[in-house]
Amino acid sequence: MRVLRPDLPFVALVLASTMAFALAGHFAAGAVIRQHQAHQLNELTEVVLRRSELAVDFAAGSLDELARRNFASCEPAALQAIRLHVYQRSAIKDVRLVKPDGSVICSAYSETLEFDKGWVDRRDMLPSRDKTLFLFRVEQFGGDALGVLRDVNGNSALVAIVGVNASLFDIMPAELRAHSQVILALSNGEKLGEFQTEAGKSLPAPIGFERASARLPLHATIRLEDAVLSSWNNEAYWPTLAVALGLGAIFGILLARNRRMEGPVADLDRALTAGEFKPYYQPIFDLRTGRIKGCEILARWLRRDGSVVPPMNFIPLAESSGRIQAMTWQILGSALTELRPLLRADKNFKLSLNVVPKHLLSAGFVETLRRTVLTARVSARQIVVEITERDELDDLARAASVVAELRDRGFRVAIDDVGVGHSGLSRLKGLGADTIKIDKFFVDTITVDASTTTIVEMLVALAKDLDMSVVAEGIETEEQLRALLASGVEEGQGYLVAPPLPAAKFNELIESRRAAQPGAARSGAKALVA
């Protein structure tokens, strides 16, 4: 009788691979945790910078409006109009008319001049990428402020005095607040404001994370104690080690069987061929009435085994590998087929599609979109192209040309991730879009952070000045809805109404809403929970 023995070389190779990966995972876990921490802190530093850029954009937009209305004057009527303008914008403390050398001619609130400890010469003001916009620090007895100068003509300029509120920088996680310092400064090193729970406290062995604005002379820094990082977000150690063990076992098995490792990109190609990428739909609704006015298409990967892969697990790879374009067209085609009855029955219903900047600027994008929509027999004015702002548009002029062509063809255009992406005032103006979408980051904090309310109000005011509509993303509670309404936002999307849904469930939601609201739509949060 022959005794069956295990395949010792196979087992040994698998065990050796598992142990090697486990050892590497032990050392790598620390690096993974540090990398994750650094990523989060870099993002927080970016948020400080974006908030500051937004405040400058808001001030610059206000000065442009005053100049456009010919209020750059010291005449009593002009000063009265400027005072009203300042009164309506809480972030701006004063507006002054200055000479070409920067010296003050007159002020909307002349008494504020008494609080200035000094006033810089034009030569000491810092230029922005926009050659007519300059920034400088205004030293005052009550704390420093930011001066934003906009040239009006060769004889004069307007200056907005922007209050630097330390609460704008209160963004650190609770466990790090007492051990950190958030600083905003000009590019020449002059400090504009900072947040630290214990003012003047020295941070032992601090490490820093810095970001400089590409278009404004602004510099943001987050400093915190190195030691506190050892206990912050270190939950990833055991999952990382478990992943290392699993990878080691899998690698050993594949290596032992001499199988070719194709990698995740090959998985994407197979899924594209099999049509496994499907559209899910999240409603966009009127905040006052709860009426669903449209939806955003969100990608999901439905594997053959029935599992659903969330977008964060494949969208970055699709973008970096160049598969995002094919995936976008596949998902749009499916969405137009699934929602064609709804789109044809309600000509005011809008379908929003996310497009990355590289895809927007690719050859033939507009014509392919037009042909796809035309083939589905859907009106172009029902399609909204959402340009994601987390990736920067390298060629603004070309992008503006594509946006203009889209609008000429009847499509609408939205700018996504406004406030945390790369969108500044000049970009919002230059693209010529129809809608801005406020990022979920601001919605999450609008009921607990007064500075967020100020930022949202700024965005709404900017959108109104540019004749654009506003949509807020990620609304989850009625309190957030009421706060957004109070800030002037009229449309939104989020789990308060529904998560992203497959077509069948989305159509059920639409039908149930219509049945529940056969007559005039009910208003406010009450309609949203119907």
From TrEMBL:
PROSITE patterns: EAL. Pfam families: CSS-motif, EAL. It is found in: Cell membrane. Its EC number is 3.1.4.52. Residues 261-514 form the EAL domain. GO terms for molecular function: cyclic-guanylate-specific phosphodiesterase activity. Keywords: c-di-GMP, Cell membrane, Hydrolase, Membrane, Signal, Transmembrane, Transmembrane helix. This is cyclic-guanylate-specific phosphodiesterase. It is a multi-pass membrane protein. It catalyses: 3',3'-c-di-GMP + H2O = 5'-phosphoguanylyl(3'->5')guanosine + H(+).
